[in-house]
Structures are given as structure tokens and as C-alpha cells.
Amino acid sequence: CLSFVLSGIKPRQRGNHDLPVIGAVADFTLTNQAGRQVTLADLRGKVWVADIIFTSCAGPCPRMTKQMQSLQGALPKESRVQLVSLTTDPGHDTPEVLQKYARHFDADPDRWSFLTGSKSQIAALAIDSLKLTAIEKKPEERTDDADLFIHSTIFVLVDKQARLRAAF
User: Fold this and answer.
1) Which of 5-19, 28-42, 62-76, 107-121 has the lowest mean pLDDT?
2) C-alpha span between 148 and 142 (Å, rounded)
3) How far is Cα 151 from Cα 63, in angstroms, rounded to an integer?
4) What is the value of pTM for the model shown?
5) In whole angstroms, how far apart are CA 37 and each of 34, 70, 92?
6) How many whole angstroms from its chain centre is CA 51?
7) Helix (H, G, I), strand (E, B) or coil at 56
8) Which end of the chain is less enclosed by CB atoms within 10 A, N or C?
9) In the predicted model, what is the mean pLDDT of residues 30-59?
10) SS3 annotation, 100-150
11) Residue 89, exposed/middle/buried by CB under 10 A (0-12, 13-18, 19+)?
């Protein structure tokens, strides 16, 4: 079903039900890996898939980014689907750091944005709108220097009207 949604083909309906609307995505302004501001208005009218990662993560983040890279490769180049990776670590993950990370995963900057901003801006989008989890670990709870956050390892799907529709 997800592959149909991402490709813009309406999935076959079961009992006349589309994917449920989980909630609306609130307006936001963040900064991408090129240092350019990205707003909800930039994504409106496009289906997008989002996740939350941080570049120094030694846990699930590289695997998640690899999965997002696979999704980018599976989507036709002319697809209007956008990919969005939010950082949980804006203190470290500057646009320059995000750009280097994006290059490492061959991210197409026209289709895949790595976003940063203030902690409150990121939390508003990630936690409040996208229903993702991102909790900073206390120093005494960390197992090593890269063990900074507990965060969601799911991807979320947002429709053209900026409504959260699915998690996978």
C-alpha cells in the first residue's frame, strides 16, 4: 500500500477507507543542509516521508538513513515525493555537518532535506506534529559519547495537505 501512496497511485481501497488522518502538521521553518530555510509551505502539495536521526549516532540512525536512501532510489526521478530527515542534535548537526552526511548517503538535495533548527523548533515538528520521539539522555545514562538520544526509529508519511497519515 505504501509504495502506491508514494508513487502517487491511489491504493486499492478496503471497505472505502483511505489511510486515516492522524493529525495536521503545524507550520514550521527550519534550515536544510544547504543553509536554506524550509517551511511547511515548501512541502505543501507534495507527499513526504520523514524520520528523525542525528549524524553522530552509532545506533539505528545510519541504518535508517540507508533505508531512506533505498526509498530515494526506488522512487522515480520525476516523483514529487520529498524525503525529510530531522536532526535531534542541532548543537552538532549544523547545515555543514548535515551536508557532509547527506553526501555520504548520496542524498539528492532536490528530493531529500536534512533539517535543523533550535531544539524547540525541531521538537514542535518532530514530537507535536509528526508524533516522533526524541529524548536527550542524561550524561549519567549514556553508555558512550555517541549515546545521546532515545528517538523514534519509524518513518512517517505526510500527505499533500500536510496531514500525518501513517507510520511505518
Assistant:
1) 5-19
2) 7
3) 14
4) 0.82
5) 9, 26, 18
6) 3
7) coil
8) C
9) 93
10) HHHHHCCCCCCCEEEEECCHHHHHHHHHHHCCCCEEECCHHHCCCCCCCEE
11) buried
**Mean pLDDT across the chain:** 83
Structure-block grid coordinates of residue 120: 524547540
Cα distance between residue 19 and residue 7, in whole Å: 15
pLDDT tier at 16, thresholds 50, 70, 90: very low
Which of 3-7, 18-22, 137-141, 146-150 shows the lowest per-residue confidence on average (mean pLDDT)? 3-7
Q: Which residues pair with 167 in a beta bridge?
A: 156
Tell me which DSSP letter residue 47 carries. -
Percentage of the chain modeled with pLDDT above 70: 78
Q: What are the contacts of 68-72 at 24+ separation with CB within 8 A?
A: 68/105, 68/112, 68/155, 69/105, 69/106, 69/107, 71/6, 72/106, 72/107, 72/108, 72/111, 72/112
State the cell numbers at 110: 532536490
β-strands 82-87, 163-167 pairing? unpaired
Q: Which amino acid is at 18?
A: D
- C-alpha closest to that of 30 among 107, 148, 122, 137: 122
